[in-house]
Amino acid sequence: MRKLGRSRRYSLSDLPERLRRWHAPRANRWERLCVIAGRLAVEALEADAITVQILIAADTRWIAPGLRWRIAELGEEAQFELEIHADDASSASAPQSVRAVLLDEAGSAQVDDVQSLDAVLRSLEPGHRRIVRAGFDIGPVVRAAMADGGGMLCWHPLDAGPDAHAALIVRASRTVGLVEYLGRDHAVIEAALAGALRGDAERGRWLRNLLARHLWIEEELLFPAWLGVGGNPGWERGLRNEHTRLRRDLEHLDDAVARRRFLLLLDGHDEKEEQIVYPDILARLGDAAAALTPRAIGRGVAQDHAGG
Questions:
Q1: Phi and psi of 163, rounded to 5°?
Q2: Domain 2-90 classification at class level
Q3: Phi/psi at 133 (5° precision)
Q4: What would you report as the CA-atom Rg of the chain, rounded to the nearest whole angstrom?
Q5: Residue 38: which residues within 8 A CB-CB, separation 6 or more?
Q6: Nearest CA to 165 among 282, 71, 301?
Q7: CB proximity list for 285: less than 8 A, separation 6 or greater
Q8: Strand ranges across the sheet with 29-37
Q9: What is the DSSP letter of 23?
């Protein structure tokens, strides 16, 4: 890897707000965090859980492309440097293998009836995920389990064809908030994209379903609520325009120009939402955000996109 630019040194007095919020290195970029003095805590939004790592002087952590992380705690004496490195072994217009892990390394379970689905959900331990497949609609059972799960059980619906339903089911180690869920949904979309770009037809179908669902959650649920409490209409128009471009280029991923454009736009779009838009939505909605969370998480695959 090749270091880009100069290292930036930070302390409590000049820690930028963006490092306190969920964010991720862009495609083909790695971040290297080096602790100079004191102690800090780094949270990472992993596939199954939010993990916390305590770093002290002389500790180093590499952060991979697409891994969402933030500074959760920074002591008064703490100082650290952040470096950006380019991964010259891969291209922004090529599949990012590090992002595919979320789906590639998830266990899989085929269920034949409601009882076996319920057993799988009950057996899922905190900090674990599983791709559940069924020949029937698993939505009602999963939604009921999520309602009883204390905000720790969530799903990312992948498919809802006539005889083929699938979802990534995650039981987190702590309650999943709206911003954390949407950030993880971005990561699932990116994992499906990585599979689609290596020629996996099923992952391509999942990608279309996941993206259509995610955009519906934003356009039909979040954005109207946000504008209703003083959200920036210019930002909202810009995001909708980017959604239109993503939908357009999604249909032409076999074209090198459209594929590169899609990948770069998706990276920047996700970063903008996680760094700026979602925190603003959360701040403006206040307690009302809690009511939106189960509605967003409970959304299934749109039938007009399922299997498309």
A1: -130, 15
A2: mainly beta
A3: -120, 145
A4: 20
A5: 56, 57, 74, 75, 76, 77, 78, 79
A6: 301
A7: 225, 226, 229, 292
A8: 2-11, 79-86, 29-37, 60-63
A9: B
138-144 long-range contacts (CB < 8 A, ≥24 apart) are: 138/111, 138/165, 138/167, 139/165, 139/300, 141/114, 141/117, 142/117, 142/167, 142/169, 143/298
The predicted model scores a pTM of 0.83
pLDDT at residue 308, rounded to an integer: 40
171 DSSP β-pair partners:
128, 153
Torsion of CA 199, 263, 102, 277, to 10 degrees: -150
Q: What is the distance, to the nearest Å, from the Cα of residue 287 to the centroid of all Cα atoms in its chain?
A: 23
Residue ranges of the alpha helices (H) in 129-255?
A: 139-147, 178-197, 201-216, 223-228, 233-250
**Interval 202-236: pLDDT, tens:** 999 999 999 999 999 999 999 999 999 999 999 99
pLDDT tens-digit map of 258-281? 998 999 899 889 988 988 899 899
Q: What is the pLDDT of residue 307?
A: 46
- Hey, how many other C-beta atoms are within 10 angstroms of the C-beta on 17? 9
Strands (E), the chain: 2-11, 29-37, 39-45, 50-56, 60-63, 68-74, 79-86, 107-111, 128-134, 153-160, 165-171
Domain residue extents for the chain: 2-90, 99-298
Q: What's the confidence (pLDDT) of residue 232?
A: 94
Q: What is residue 98's predicted lDDT score, i.e. its pLDDT?
A: 63
CA distance 30 to 24: 9
Strands of the sheet containing 68-74, edge to edge, are: 50-56, 39-45, 68-74
Taking each helix axis as running N to C, give the angle between helix 256-272 and helix 178-197, from 0 to 180 degrees, rounded to the nearest 10.
170
Quick one: pLDDT band at residue 94, thresholds 50, 70, 90? low
